[in-house]
Amino acid sequence: MLVKETSALLKTLADKYEKASFMDADPSRFLRRYSQPRDQELAAFVVSQLSFGQREQFIAKLDAMFDAADGWALSSGNGGKPKTRGASFADWLTSGGYKKFFPKSQKKFYRFFSYADMAELCSRLAQIVEERGSLGAAVRARYGLADASGIATVPSELRLVTALISLFPGVKCVSQNPKGACKKLHMFLRWMVRKGSPVDLGLWEWANPADLLIPLDTHVLQESARLGLIAPNATASAKIAIELTQKMAQVFPEDPTRADFALFGLGVDQNLGQNDTSFRKF
């Protein structure tokens, strides 16, 4: 059991940081760029897969991509809608509008992801939408098949992320091993599943927040170790994510990933005195 003081601290910090202002310096700032749920989940998935490295760099890449998508919608005669909140990210994908922005080139778009890698990701997302109507519907279908795509071979805590991974076989931009940390995928799932949050969207009403795992970024690992929640030498892995999430369920029953806000926020506070200007370390 966690000591009373640690539980109280985590609850206080979660209340402090789980506010709309959290999105100002976080990739979740893009979650409400579009108003339609289908657009929101597709955009959020791409955002999550590019959310690593220097924040300023990947934010700039995402801004450029979304500007291109919205500009394509405007130039395609889709009602002459304004560039913000009016365009359809799903239409940009399913109509192949992404191909101009992401030509099949091995030139790097961001870090080790090439333009061709991004085109492959967009193509697969378009295919999923055309087949299932939405990414959430596709994940739900896989999640409900315990004997499909390796889901039956992983611990119950990894079934949801395994269902998501199974939709992207061989896609370089998407982690392929559910037993790894899969931080970006767990962050995306938190955005989709947690309900009643000023940050997370909660679009997948069929999914249970209790089935989520905490995304293990640098701040979360550091502060979890400092508080004695995980071993001091623990590294990011599914095993550590499960261990930490189970402990956080003692503090936030049925919604353990709310602790992500507390641990991350605490990490920011601890680093402010060390000239940490990156806000979130990916």
| Strand count | 2
User: Which residue ranges are poorly predicted, with pLDDT under 50 across at least 5 consecutive positions?
Assistant: 78-85, 272-282
Helix content: 40-55%
Gross morphology is: globular
**H-E order:** HHHHHEEHHHHHHH
Major sheet: 2 strands, antiparallel
Indicate the radius of gyration in whole angstroms.
19 Å
SS-derived structural category: mainly alpha
Count of helical stretches: 12
Which strand order do you get reading across the main beta sheet?
Answer: 1-2
Q: Provide mean pLDDT, rounded.
A: 89
Structural notes for this entry:
With 282 residues, the chain is mainly α. Helix content is 49%, strand content 2%. A two-stranded antiparallel ribbon has the order 1-2. The chain is globular, with a radius of gyration of 19 Å.
Give descriptors for this structure.
mainly alpha; two-stranded antiparallel ribbon
Question: What's the helix and strand layout?
Answer:
Blueprint: H1 4-17, H2 37-50, H3 55-75, H4 89-94, H5 98-101, E1 108-110, E2 113-114, H6 115-132, H7 135-143, H8 159-165, H9 183-193, H10 218-226, H11 238-248, H12 259-271
Task: Offer a concise description of the structure.
The protein is mainly α.
